[in-house]
Design brief:
9 helices; six-stranded mixed β-sheet; six-stranded antiparallel barrel; flat
C-alpha cells in the first residue's frame, strides 16, 4: 500500500471521527432543551350567552284537520295570497308526493349527465379534479352540520360522477335507468291523492313553518319595554301563548333583533358598533350592530340588544340560540407563557435556539391568556419571528448565550504581530502612504 493511499485512508477516518463526535455533541445539546416553534396564531375575545330572536311575526291559522305539507322552505319569501301549506288526509299521501319529487330529481340529474354537449367536451382529468373538490366541500359541510348546503352539493357530486362514468366508457348512456325511474313515477302517480285543503297567507313576507307562542310578546315594536326578567322567561319557556291551530307564521321583513343577558363588565360594549356573531347550532357568522345595553337591578346583568338585516333558513329554526360575540380578533406570533423571561435590561422576551447558540429576543404582547401570549408581528430582528425555536424548558448556559450587542457584530480580526518582522523602512513607507492618502482626501473635500 503506497503512501498516498494511506494518507487518504487516515484523512477519511479522521473526518468520520470528527463528524461522529460533532453529531453526538449536537444531539446532547439539543436534548437538553425543550423547544416550541413560533407560529402565527389567531385569537379573539368572546362573550357567550343565550340569545332570544325578536321579529315582527304574525301566526297563520288553518281550519281543516289533517296532515300538513309545506311547499316552501322556512325563510322563503311568500307573496300575498300564496299557498303556505297543503292539508292531506294521511301521511302516506305526503310520502307518495315526496317520492315522486325525488325520482323526478334523479331523472333530471341523469339527463343532465348524459347531455352530449357536456360529455363530448369533458376530459376525465378535469372531471376527476372536480369530483375531488366536491368531495372536500361535502366533507366540510358535514363537519359544519350545514344540511341545507349539503343537499345542493350532493346533487352536484352525483352529476359529476355520472358524467365521469360516460366519458371513461363505463356507461354509454343512462336511458335504461331513466326509463326505470319514469316507470316508478307513473306507478306512484296512480296512487297520488290531491290535498283536502290549502292554507294561504293574506300578507307578504317570510314564512316559518312553526310557532312557539311568543309571537305577540316579542316584536320589534315593543322591544324597548322588555326586561332582563322577560328574557329569562323566554329562555326557560315560561309565558308562552302557544296555539295548536297555528300552522306557521309570517315575518314581515328580513330585519331581526336579538336580546340576551350579559355581564356589562366583561367587555367594552359600545352602542352602535359592529360585532361578529357566531351561532352554536349553525355555521353562519353574521355581522350585527350593538343597538342597546339596558341595565337591571343586578350590576352584573344587563340586557344587550343586537340588530341584523340578514335572514336565512338556519336563523329561523329556533327562538333561543346559544351565540358568541367575537369582540376583538388578534393575529400574532404564539409564545408559550412558560417560555417568557427577562434579560439583564429587564426586557420581556424569550430565549431562542440558533443552531448550538442561544439568543434573547423581545416580544410585543398584543393579547394574553393563561396558556400563551400573542406577540406583534414585526420585521425588527430584536423581536421574536415566525419559526424561531423558542426554549420552553432548559437551563440557559452562559457559554452558549449570545448577547444582543455581540450577536450581530462581526468578530474583530486578530492580528498576530509575531508572524512577521516589521522594519523601519516598511514603517516609514506606511507613514508616507498614509500621509498621501490624507492629502488626497483633503483635496477631494475642498
Amino acid at each position: 500500500m503506497n503512501t498516498v493511499t494511506v494518507r487518504i485512508l487516515v484523512f477519511l477516518l479522521s473526518l468520520f471521527i470528527l463528524i461522529t463526535v460533532f453529531s453526538q455533541i449536537s444531539i446532547q445539546f439539543q436534548d437538553s432543551y425543550i423547544t416550541e416553534t413560533a407560529v402565527l396564531y389567531s385569537s379573539a375575545e368572546k362573550i357567550s350567552f343565550q340569545g332570544v330572536y325578536i321579529r315582527n311575526e304574525t301566526p297563520v291559522y288553518g281550519g281543516t284537520s289533517g296532515v300538513l305539507s309545506y311547499p316552501n322552505a322556512d325563510g322563503s319569501k311568500i307573496a300575498n295570497g300564496s299557498v303556505v301549506a297543503y292539508v292531506y288526509k294521511s301521511e302516506n299521501d305526503i310520502y307518495i308526493n315526496q317520492q315522486i319529487e325525488k325520482l323526478k330529481e334523479q331523472v333530471e340529474l341523469l339527463e343532465s349527465a348524459q347531455n352530449p354537449g357536456t360529455t363530448e367536451a369533458a376530459q376525465p382529468e378535469f372531471i376527476s379534479a372536480l369530483i375531488d373538490e366536491e368531495y372536500q366541500t361535502i366533507a366540510f359541510l358535514i363537519a359544519e352540520d350545514d344540511l341545507e348546503a349539503l343537499a345542493k352539493e350532493r346533487k352536484q357530486l352525483q352529476t359529476l360522477m355520472d358524467i365521469y362514468k360516460i366519458i371513461i366508457n363505463e356507461e354509454t348512456d343512462f336511458n335504461d335507468a331513466i326509463n326505470s325511474l319514469n316507470s316508478q313515477i307513473s306507478q306512484l302517480e296512480a296512487k297520488k291523492r290531491e290535498p283536502i285543503d290549502a292554507v294561504t297567507t293574506d300578507s307578504t313576507g317570510y314564512f316559518i313553518s312553526h310557532t312557539d307562542g311568543f309571537e305577540s310578546k316579542l316584536s320589534l315594536d315593543n322591544i324597548d319595554t322588555l326586561t332582563v326578567s322577560d328574557i329569562k322567561d323566554v329562555i326557560s319557556g315560561s309565558g308562552s301563548n302557544y296555539s295548536s291551530r297555528a300552522i306557521g307564521k309570517m315575518v314581515d321583513g328580513y330585519e331581526w333583533k336579538m336580546a340576551g343577558i350579559v355581564d356589562p363588565n366583561a367587555a367594552d360594549f359600545r352602542i352602535g358598533s359592529s360585532i361578529t356573531v357566531k351561532f352554536a347550532s349553525t355555521p353562519d357568522r353574521l355581522t350585527a350592530v350593538v343597538e342597546n345595553l339596558i341595565e337591571s337591578d343586578n350590576p352584573n346583568e344587563s340586557m344587550i340588544v343586537l340588530s341584523c338585516d340578514k335572514l336565512t333558513y338556519n336563523l329561523v329554526q329556533r327562538r333561543v340560540e346559544r351565540v358568541e360575540l367575537i369582540l376583538n380578533d388578534y393575529d400574532g406570533i404564539r409564545v408559550p407563557r412558560e417560555a417568557i423571561r427577562f434579560n439583564d435590561k429587564n426586557e420581556k422576551g424569550v430565549y431562542i435556539l440558533l443552531g448550538q447558540r442561544i439568543s434573547f429576543k423581545k416580544i410585543k404582547p398584543i393579547y394574553e391568556c393563561e396558556e400563551y401570549i400573542l406577540s406583534q408581528i414585526t420585521s425588527d430582528a430584536d423581536y421574536i419571528s415566525v419559526y424561531d425555536d423558542i426554549i420552553v424548558e432548559g437551563e440557559i448556559s452562559e457559554d452558549l448565550y449570545v448577547s444582543e450587542t455581540t450577536a450581530d457584530e462581526p468578530e474583530e480580526e486578530e492580528i498576530n504581530y509575531n508572524s512577521t518582522s516589521v522594519t523601519d523602512e516598511e514603517i516609514s513607507g506606511e507613514e508616507e502612504t498614509t500621509g498621501e492618502y490624507s492629502e488626497s482626501l483633503d483635496e477631494e473635500a475642498a
